Structures are given as C-alpha cells and as structure tokens.
C-alpha cells in the first residue's frame, strides 16, 4: 500500500490479498506531494519555521500518513480478519513510528539492517 487511494479502498484490495505491506516512504511522498529528491531544498525551512515538527520521511506523520495506515488496516481487516499487516521503510526503525504501528494493530515492521536493534527495542516497548 504505497498510494493514498489504495489505503482508502483497502477493503476491496483485501478481498484478493493475503497481506498488506505499507510502503511508508512512498506513501509519505504521495500523501505530502513531496519528492524525496527535492525535500532537502525546503524541508529544513519548514521544520525551522514550525510548519512541520519532523522530517516526515524519518518520523511518521501520524495525523496524515498514519491515519491512512489506520484506515487501511481497519478496512482491510474488516474484509479479511486474518489479514497480515506490516510496513517496509525507514519508519520501521524509528521508535515513535513503531509504537504507532503497534497501536493500530500492525503485525510487523521491516527496516534497514542498521536500524534493527532500535526497531526491536521499540517494538518491545510498544507492547509493554
């Protein structure tokens, strides 16, 4: 699930899918309309001026992208209760993002190898 439309019609997709893997890097890019190649030109200014709290490619935007993940998870599991849900992307190794994914019922996260220790610790803390 890498585009907002897929998240919004997740119930239909779940009729033929056994799992959802949320590509949060692409979903973030498509939701914000930001190219990852261009954010370096303006994102630091947005953060400095308080337009954004964090780089949304590093810390999940829970109010926007996160809500799309939540909607898709709920709609998907309504159609297919045993649907496996997870994410792939850098958010899978960021502690507050991992906690959010746990809260909305995702089954797994994947991330870059160097982020695995952080992801494991964040996942353990999320269930405590």
UniProtKB/TrEMBL annotation:
PROSITE patterns named among the record's database cross-references: PEP_ENZYMES_2
What is the top EC class of this enzyme, as a single word?
transferase
Q: Which UniProt keywords apply?
A: Kinase, Pyruvate, Transferase
Query: What residues form the membrane-spanning segments?
Result: none
Record domain PEP-utilising enzyme C-terminal: where: 1-126
* InterPro entries cross-referenced by the UniProt entry: PEP_util_C (IPR000121), PEP_util_CS (IPR023151), Pyruvate_phosphate_dikinase (IPR010121), Pyrv/PenolPyrv_kinase-like_dom (IPR015813), Pyrv_kinase-like_dom_sf (IPR040442)
Q: What Gene Ontology molecular function terms does this protein carry?
A: kinase activity; pyruvate, phosphate dikinase activity
Q: What is its EC number?
A: 2.7.9.1
Its protein name is Pyruvate, phosphate dikinase
**Biological classification of the source:** Eukaryota, Viridiplantae, Streptophyta, Embryophyta, Tracheophyta
């Amino acid at each position: 699930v890498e585009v907002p439309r897929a998240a919004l019609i997740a119930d239909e997709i779940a009729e033929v899918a056994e799992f959802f893997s949320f590509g949060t890097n692409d979903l973030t890019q498509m939701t914000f309309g930001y190219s990852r190649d261009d954010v370096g030109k303006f994102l630091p200014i947005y953060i400095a001026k308080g337009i954004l709290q964090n780089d949304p490619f590093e810390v999940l935007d829970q109010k926007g992208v996160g809500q799309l993940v939540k909607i898709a998870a709920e709609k998907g599991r309504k159609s297919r209760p045993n649907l496996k849900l997870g994410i792939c992307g850098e958010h899978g190794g960021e502690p507050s993002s991992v906690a959010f994914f746990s809260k909305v019922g995702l089954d797994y996260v994947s991330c870059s190898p160097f982020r695995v220790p952080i992801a494991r610790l964040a996942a353990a803390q999320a269930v405590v």
